[in-house]
Amino acid sequence: MNRARAVVELLAVVLVTGLAVAPGPATAPAVADNGLARTPPMGWNSWNAYGCDIDQDKIRAAVDALVTTGMREAGYRYVAIDDCWQADARTDTGALRADPTRFPDGIKALADHAHAVGLDLGLYATPGTRTCANIYAGYPGRLGSLGHERQDAATFAAWGVDYLKYDWCLAEQDGVDPQAGFTLMRDALAATGRPVVYSVHRQPQQPVDRWRPAVANLWRTTGDISADWGSVLDVLDRQVGLERYSRPGAWNDPDMLEVGNGPLTLAEDRAQFSLWALLNAPLLAGNDLTTMPESVRAVLTNPEVIAVDQDWAGTQGYRVFDDGDHEIWRKPLSGGDSAVVLLNRGTSAATVTATAEQLGFPGVTGFGLHDLWTGQTTTTRAGTISVSVPPHGVVFYRVSPDRG
Ligand code: GAL
Q1: CA 217 / ligand 1 centre spacing (Å)
Q2: Cis before 332? omega within 30
Q3: Quick one: CA dihedral 243, 249, 254, 260, positive or negative?
Q4: CB-based contact 271:393 (threshold 8 Å)
Q5: Domain coordinates of the chain in residue numbers?
Q6: Across-strand partners of 402?
Q7: What is the pLDDT of residues 352-394, one digit of tens each?
Q8: Which residue of the set 83, 167, 309, 337 is catalytic?
Q9: pLDDT tens digits for range 295-347
Q10: Which ranges constitute the DSSP H helices of 160-293?
């Protein structure tokens, strides 16, 4: 093939597939055009709290708790049932059905219950022949959607499902191509006519495939998070550089929240919540909402932190400084301010200093600093800010430049 023809053919491929030459907001492929998830989805998912140990009472209780705790009013909308909701075999007609013992009233009853209080229901499925709980925990049944994509999407739509988590789970062993497999379910969902937010987990999670924003509303960027500080930091470290992929309708998903779980302290809970908000991450609580202490509720419902997560000013937040134990993450806000997280990974309090440039305002010397956790506002004319950050914790500021 001569060079000119090769260029023409490459351009044709770019046009037909929607692939851009270089990643980045200006040239990236179109997002999944279902019009959903224009801001990062917020809700609750059963996995981190309960794993496979779920039943309809727990899901109903989560729906009710989202209402009574004020989380619904704070923006939490989806109640997502993760793996282990299924009966161990399909019906005679090949349809999925809920486990009759743990979900005797079926999934539709739960969707109806959620809808009755203004919430939405999420569900879990996989593109191969097996779910992850079948593979890794011996959950009975080969219940993947391979060969049943249209049927399963129609079932979910008929039940009133509003959000689907489609989890890879070794589907390569069934010969599934990731792009084709995830696209098949995207199209099957679209064919139902029901708006369904589409969350995918492809393994390996990185590098982020160029097709993901055009296929899914959100995609996992790491393996599973766990309820310990090291895991939170490990997931965080893997977000560096991914900001170019996310935008309204298509979000990086650094996995669910562990706020309120395991041995995480209040400082660590605030740190995860702050950083996930800065990353425009989906905010999917993963704790037991029925036993949640007020301190945890206050973290999950902090309106100013949630507002950062839901705000889109052209890029998710990204790391601007890292000296090992101390980091600075910044995100531009739509009103012209910066959201700035000062992170202390170490085990003793430390003073972290940010320059005007790191705050996003080179040459500016005066700043208003609104602390999103204490609610206090201070000002400085020093040209930099220096603040004591608690161990395993953050200080989270909305920074306003004073150009006067
Ligand atoms: C994993 C997934 C978890 C959870 C689990 C269920 O692959 O990352 O979030 O969904 O499967 O088995």
Answers
A1: 17
A2: no
A3: positive
A4: yes
A5: 2-309, 318-402
A6: 366
A7: 999 999 999 999 999 999 999 999 999 999 999 999 999 999 9
A8: 167
A9: 999 999 999 999 999 999 999 999 999 999 999 999 999 999 999 999 999 99
A10: 178-192, 212-215, 229-237, 266-278
User: Does the pLDDT of residue 27 top 70, yes or no?
Assistant: no
Q: How far apart are CA 332 and CA 169, in angstroms?
A: 36
Which residue in 57, 224, 237, 402 is the catalytic one?
224
Residue type, 394: V
2-309 has which fold?
TIM Barrel (3.20.20)
pLDDT for 199: 98
- What value does the CA radius of gyration of the chain take, rounded to a whole number of Å? 22
318-402 CATH: 2.60.40.1180
The rounded Å distance from CA 136 to ligand 1 centre is 10
> What burial letters (b/e) apply to 129-164, b meaning 16+ CB within 10 Å?
bbbbbbbeeebebebbbbebbbbbbbbbbebbbbbb
51 CA closest ligand 1 atom index: 6
Return the percentage of the chain with pLDDT > 90, whole number.
Answer: 91
| pLDDT score of 22 more than 60 | no
Whether the pTM exceeds 0.90: the reply is: yes
Catalytic site includes residue 64:
no
Q: What is the DSSP letter of 228?
A: S
Interval between CA 41 and ligand 1 midpoint (Å): 18
For position 18, what pLDDT does the model report?
35
The answer, yes or no, to whether the previous bond of 282 is cis (omega within 30 of 0) is: no
Q: What is the DSSP letter of 208?
A: P
Helix count and strand count (H, E) for the chain = 13, 16
The tokens 């399909």 sit on which residue?
Answer: 90
Which backbone phi and psi does 219 adopt, to 5 degrees? -145, 140
Cα dihedral value 283, 98, 138, 93, nearest 10: -130
Rounded to the nearest 10 degrees, the angle between the axes of helix 56-68 and helix 106-116 is 10
Single out the residue of 76, 165, 161 nearest to residue 118, CA to CA: 76
N-term to C-term CA, the chain: 62
> Taking Cα atoms as reference points, which of 109, 147, 120 lies closest to residue 44?
120
Q: Are 54 and 85 in contact (CB under 8 A)?
A: yes
Pick from 46, 47, 164 the residue to mutate for probing ligand 1's pocket: most ligand atoms within 8 Å of its CB: 47
Task: Please give the pLDDT value at position 21.
Answer: 31
* Ligand 1: residue whose CA is nearest its atom 2: 224
**Strand, helix or coil for residue 352:** strand
